[in-house]
Amino acid sequence: MPLYTMLCDECGAEQDIFRSVARIDADLPQCHGVMRRKVCAPMVIADIQPYQAMGVDVATGDAPMITSRSKHRDYLKRNGYVELGNEMPNMKKREIHGDFNVRAELAQAVKEVLPKHTA
Ligand SMILES: [Zn+2]
Questions:
Q1: Ligand 1 centroid vs 87 CA: distance in angstroms?
Q2: Strand partners, 34
Q3: CA 34 to centroid of ligand 1, rounded, Å
Q4: How far is the CA of 5 from the centre of ligand 1 (A)?
Q5: Is 74 strand, coil or helix?
Q6: What's the rounded mean pLDDT across residues 20-35?
Q7: pLDDT at 93 over 70
Q8: Cα 76–77–82 angle (5° rounding)?
Q9: Which terminus of the chain has a lower count of CB atoms within 10 Å, N or C?
Q10: In the chain, what are the domain boundaries?
């Protein structure tokens, strides 16, 4: 949701509000009357500095040079990579198939090995 700065024409007080674009004119804050929207520059984030990727790109088979935020996003998405620190907290663990009834095998191995070392 965008951040808007509201201004009181009477005393110059300012207040920041978060509103959806559709609801910008609803429930406007009051000071000495209804505050109006102050026109100001939008917040802009600079693009990232180019960097050499550490992982191989499935599209090329090489670790690419990433030159922009959108290329960074596409690269991560295309390869199923996740930025360290941006993992989803409850990502589903992949199901692992296989025979995990190793208890009996371990018990058998211990029975075979133990007498040799205790005798
Ligand atoms: Zn005011």
A1: 45
A2: 30
A3: 9
A4: 14
A5: helix
A6: 88
A7: no
A8: 50
A9: C
A10: 3-37, 45-82
